[in-house]
Amino acid sequence: MTATTFLTHLSIILVIGLFMTLISKKLKISNVLLLLLAGILVGALQIEGVRLIEFPTEFLSSIAVLALVMIVFDSASRFKIKEFSVLSGEALKLAFVFLLVNVVILSLASFFLFRMQSPLIAFVFASLMSGTDPAAVLAMFSGSKNKVIELIEIESIVNTPMVVLLPFITLDIIKNFGATISARNLMTQLVPFLQQFVAGMGAGLLVGLIAFRLMKKGYSEKLSPLALITAALLTYILAENLGGNGVLAVTVMGLFFGNIYVKQKGRLFEFSGIFAHALEILVFIMVGLIVKIPYTVDFFIRSGILFVIYLCSRFIAVNLSFPKGFTMGEKLFMSLNVQKGIAVAVVAFSFAALSFEGISTILNLTLIFMLYSIILSTILAKFAELFLGKTAAK
């Protein structure tokens, strides 16, 4: 592939992404669904068995790492301990309970329904599906002061670091121990595995302390945003080269940045958000382009059953978290609004660059769950008043 061809393909992807985003704003729906469908459609276009748009593996891997670093940093930095409110506490409670319930119920269901190679593979998928991003609802009711809408919005911020971190930690376990853990290899690999945590957290704190200490002294409109991106990437690279977990390192650095004083932090947040949004367009189309779900009746039946089980686990988690204080309509609204967002897409995109047993099953289920959840949330947003009452849009 020549440089001109490569840049042409990239330009086409970005133009399609911008066009889909404009259409979604006109329709007042989340752009995620249109971006994924555009990626699936573009990926299906072929001439004599060769796809019209293709990208080198090295480019896809680099974009995956860059997107992963920026999304993890952006989400972790927005979790501020000082601003922890009652509503934040409720959102954190729901996020943890849903994670626990989901990794038990969905792990077992996916393991048996899709005959996965290992319970750990099923755990990776279940932990990834514990993330939520109510973009469809927020697009319809931006500025709404309804408690339920604010709660699920905060929940999506709270659960993002966990959803991104857990799958990669589990993959490290599989890499160190194998798909099946025995007492013998557990003892031999326990110390190296713990070293990954120490090295990851240490790298995040070290780079964070140095970078943000310098940024406290002054702000440069040109250099400070660049320094922020460089520090986040350096944190990931340093942790990985030291044998640590790069995602954990960036998470620690993001939490550190979000809870210390830095000059013009608001502008830096705005910049990182814009940069993350640009990557979001690219990632969603790329996921639809790369992941090829099997278009068989058997796959859609089993994935549909699994998605219903998933919604049931969400409903159980909502009821365990809030036995009182919400109506049944509000609980159903929270249970059905499980749209998958950029965090899940970035992890799936990163997984596509990896090679291990069971990855294709995880990718197929992730893409179809993203489509199911986005369609459900879009429909749910149109009929939100049936669940929340007439105050939903106020």
Care to describe what's here?
- The chain is 77% helix and 1% strand.
- It has 394 residues and is mainly α.
- It has a single domain, classed as Na+/H+ antiporter like fold (Up-down Bundle).
- It has a two-stranded antiparallel ribbon.
- β1 (46-47) and β2 (50-51) form a beta hairpin.
- The chain is globular, with a radius of gyration of 21 Å.
- The model has no long low-confidence stretch (mean pLDDT 80).
Strand order of the largest sheet: 1-2
Low-confidence stretches: none
Portion of residues in beta strands equals under 5%
CATH architecture: Up-down Bundle
Taking all Cα atoms into account, the compactness measure Rg is 21 Å
Structural class, by secondary structure, is mainly alpha
Helical percentage = over 70%
Task: Characterize the biggest β-sheet.
Answer: 2 strands, antiparallel
Question: Secondary-structure map with pairings?
Answer:
Blueprint lengths: L2 H25 L3 H14 L1 E2 L2 E2 L5 H21 L8 H28 L5 H10 L6 H6 L6 H31 L5 H35 L5 H19 L4 H13 L6 H26 L6 H25 L6 H9 L5 H11 L6 H24 L1 H5 L6
Helix pairs in contact: 1-2, 1-11, 2-11, 3-9, 3-10, 3-11, 3-14, 4-5, 4-7, 4-12, 5-7, 5-15, 7-8, 8-9, 8-10, 9-10, 11-14, 12-13, 14-15
